[in-house]
């Protein structure tokens, strides 16, 4: 048997042993069976990407860490989507105008925004998300991140400028 087949067999055993537990664990956190199943699947995909069975001491804990990070990403994505739709409704005059074309446009913009946010320096992205999604003041962000108020303002301004350049490329 080659190495890939052995790894595949091991992944299969890990999946059989841990997938039901992981789905239940995620369902308690998401309160949605479909979301839990999707996140569990994504967790095992991530496991496959960098699988080194010898380096993992506690598989359940390792899977929980991966799943928790994916859940945080999912929650942030949903918060950005919700904030965008609220802003769009306020600016665009209401949800009545959200045609399928506008929704598709919004999804494309959100995908581009998510890609853009992923390219920002971690501290810039964190300051921006704390400001826009959590509604924290610059002072609160500075205290949370352990940086100066002025640095927070620069980070948020840099993120806004980058988002503006995406929204208005010309």
Automatic annotation (TrEMBL):
Keywords for this protein: Sigma factor, Transcription, Transcription regulation
Domain RNA polymerase sigma-70 region: residue ranges: 14-78
MF (Gene Ontology): DNA binding; sigma factor activity
GO biological process: DNA-templated transcription initiation
Pfam families in UniProt: Sigma70_r2 (PF04542), Sigma70_r4_2 (PF08281)
Domain of life: Bacteria
Entries under InterPro entries matching the protein: RNA_pol_sigma-70-like, RNA_pol_sigma-70_dom, RNA_pol_sigma70_r2, RNA_pol_sigma70_r4_t2, RNA_pol_sigma_r2, RNA_pol_sigma_r3/r4-like, WH-like_DNA-bd_sf
Span of domain RNA polymerase sigma factor 70 region 4 type: 111-163
PANTHER family: RNA POLYMERASE ECF-TYPE SIGMA FACTO (PTHR43133), RNA POLYMERASE SIGMA FACTOR FECI-RELATED (PTHR43133:SF63)
Family: Belongs to the sigma-70 factor family. ECF subfamily.
NCBIfam families: sigma70-ECF (TIGR02937)
Name assigned to this protein: RNA polymerase sigma factor
């Amino acid at each position: 048997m080659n190495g890939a087949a052995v790894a595949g067999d091991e992944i299969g055993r890990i999946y059989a042993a841990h997938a039901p537990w992981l789905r239940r664990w995620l369902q308690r956190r998401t309160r949605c069976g479909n979301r839990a199943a999707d996140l569990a699947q994504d967790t095992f995909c991530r496991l496959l990407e960098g699988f080194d069975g010898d380096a993992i001491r506690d598989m359940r804990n390792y899977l929980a860490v991966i799943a928790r990070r994916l859940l945080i990403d999912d929650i942030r994505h949903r918060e950005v989507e919700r904030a965008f739709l609220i802003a769009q409704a306020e600016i665009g005059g209401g949800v009545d105008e959200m045609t399928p074309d506008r929704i598709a446009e919004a999804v494309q913009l959100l995908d581009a925004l998510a890609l853009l946010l992923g390219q920002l320096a971690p501290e810039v992205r964190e300051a921006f998300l704390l400001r826009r999604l959590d509604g924290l003041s610059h002072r609160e962000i500075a205290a949370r991140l352990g940086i100066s108020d002025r640095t927070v303002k620069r980070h948020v301004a840099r993120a806004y400028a980058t988002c503006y350049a995406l929204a208005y490329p010309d």
